[in-house]
């Protein structure tokens, strides 16, 4: 079967309104003056993964529910301008949106508008099946209603990845995604015992690799039954925003995997891309290009301080 798409990204399209605040948590006050401006830009988790994959030279297709509204126009324009194929399924409730409060140290607090999703939302099965069958890999965001597509993807015989984000290891909503994916990404932020959670994912599901990112502490990689630490990579410029770092890590890891690289090198790709993402202001959607990623990885591997 011809695979005309390298990666199909399901879900996670939307718009963030960025507010740069003087500190987090933000103390109560009647008002704040935001000198940097309050800006809306397209780019939520699925958009960022698609951008990262495309920048690395992978043929990428993104599918999600998107409204006929100003936010939807921003999402469509982003994909059009970056040359990323987009299948926009009409969403009467409107395009997903959020407000991100970003502190001076790059940390963020996200406020998600849940009124723009409905329990009855569905992706069109024939469209998803056809795209999956023409793809080498599918990355599934945990936005509703992507869980319903997991059996369809299994029937299509395509490998799957997902990002559980700040899962606590117990919320049952995340479990179908965790157990259906060949590669599982998550943040270690809410985990009391990352190794235990990672091994449980592998034991109960089909994951060949589980990655838990830990910010400035690097990441944990579970592959072939062995848990290893992935050292953090020093960002090439000052850290200004952590938004999108996990998505950049996932995109670069998948690039390595689809290029036939071993898990440890895939994780190094992810660490480099994630560090780069932390230097990109929240109002922009820049992604690390393939040549720059490989150049930085080569530089790290040739450094006397580098160790596997």
TrEMBL record:
SUPFAM superfamilies: Ribokinase-like. InterPro entries: Carboh/pur_kinase_PfkB_CS, PfkB_dom, Ribokinase-like. Keywords: Kinase, Transferase. Pfam families: PfkB (PF00294). Transmembrane segments: none annotated. The keyword Glycoprotein does not apply. GO terms for molecular function: kinase activity. The keyword Transferase applies. Residues 49-286 form the Carbohydrate kinase PfkB domain. This is Adenosine kinase. It comes from Streptomyces luteolifulvus.
């Amino acid at each position: 079967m011809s695979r005309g798409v390298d990666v199909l990204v399901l879900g996670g399209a939307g718009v963030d309104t960025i507010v740069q605040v003087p500190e987090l948590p933000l103390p109560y006050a009647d008002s704040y003056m935001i000198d940097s401006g309050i800006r809306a830009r397209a780019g939520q988790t699925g958009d960022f993964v698609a951008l990262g994959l495309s920048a690395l030279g992978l043929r990428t297709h993104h599918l999600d529910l998107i409204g006929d509204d100003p936010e939807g126009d921003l999402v469509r324009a982003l994909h059009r301008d970056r040359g990323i194929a987009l299948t926009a399924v009409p969403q009467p409730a409107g395009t997903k949106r959020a407000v991100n409060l970003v502190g001076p140290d790059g940390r963020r607090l996200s406020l998600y508008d849940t009124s723009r999703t409905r329990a009855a939302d569905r992706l069109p099965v024939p469209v998803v099946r056809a795209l999956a069958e023409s793809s080498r890999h599918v990355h599934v965001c945990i936005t509703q209603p992507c869980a319903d597509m997991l059996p369809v993807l299994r029937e299509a015989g395509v490998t799957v990845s997902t990002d559980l984000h700040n899962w606590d290891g117990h919320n049952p909503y995340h479990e179908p995604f965790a157990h259906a994916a060949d590669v599982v990404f998550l943040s270690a932020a809410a985990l009391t015992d990352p190794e235990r959670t990672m091994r449980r994912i592998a034991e109960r599901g089909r994951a060949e690799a589980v990655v838990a990112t830990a910010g400035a502490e690097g990441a944990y990689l579970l592959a072939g039954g062995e848990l290893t630490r992935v050292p953090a990579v020093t960002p090439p410029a000052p850290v200004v925003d952590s938004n999108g770092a996990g998505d950049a890590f996932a995109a670069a890891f998948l690039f390595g995997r689809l290029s036939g690289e071993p898990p440890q090198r895939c994780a190094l790709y992810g660490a480099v891309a994630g560090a780069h993402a932390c230097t990109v202001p929240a109002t922009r959607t820049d992604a690390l290009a393939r040549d720059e990623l490989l150049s930085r990885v080569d530089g790290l591997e040739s450094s006397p301080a580098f160790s596997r």
